[in-house]
């Protein structure tokens, strides 16, 4: 599968820029980041499973930035290609035909992070 690396890299660059700005200027954003960090900590569900859930939800709501983030986080938390694909498939089932369109981008992201030969992108 051919990936649109530029699109994925742009999403990462935009997030990094916005994250830096809002971390420095918005208490609400800072609170959201803290909530996110707490939400995805291991608990009754491991972080990997929470990221897979969020991947499926991202497909349902057609949020490309969300798909990129949660797929990357799921992989970094130990999710296999098969697990990520199943999470994407749950998103397709929950959203019907439109989910198949969202899933195309999600599959590009999965391919990008599993098969790229160049350097990993620093998301911090």
TrEMBL record:
Family annotation (SUPFAM superfamilies): AhpD-like
Gene3D superfamilies the UniProt entry points to: AhpD-like (1.20.1290.10)
Taxonomy, superkingdom: Bacteria
Coiled coil: none
InterPro entries in UniProt: AhpD-like, AhpD_core, CMD-like
Annotated GO MF terms: peroxiredoxin activity
Carboxymuconolactone decarboxylase-like domain ranges (all copies): 27-107
NCBIfam families: ahpD_dom
Name used for this protein in its record: Alkyl hydroperoxide reductase AhpD
């Amino acid at each position: 599968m051919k990936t649109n690396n530029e699109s994925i890299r742009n999403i990462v660059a935009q997030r990094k820029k916005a994250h830096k700005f809002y971390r420095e200027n918005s208490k609400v954003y800072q609170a959201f980041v803290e909530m996110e960090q707490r939400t995805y900590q291991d608990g009754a569900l491991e972080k990997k499973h929470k990221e897979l859930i969020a991947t499926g939800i991202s497909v349902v709501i057609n949020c490309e930035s969300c798909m990129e983030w949660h797929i990357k986080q799921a992989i970094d938390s130990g999710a296999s290609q098969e697990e990520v694909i199943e999470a994407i498939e749950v998103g397709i089932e929950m959203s019907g035909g439109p989910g198949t369109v969202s899933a195309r981008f999600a599959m590009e992201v999965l391919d990008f992070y599993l098969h790229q030969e160049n350097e990993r992108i620093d998301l911090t």
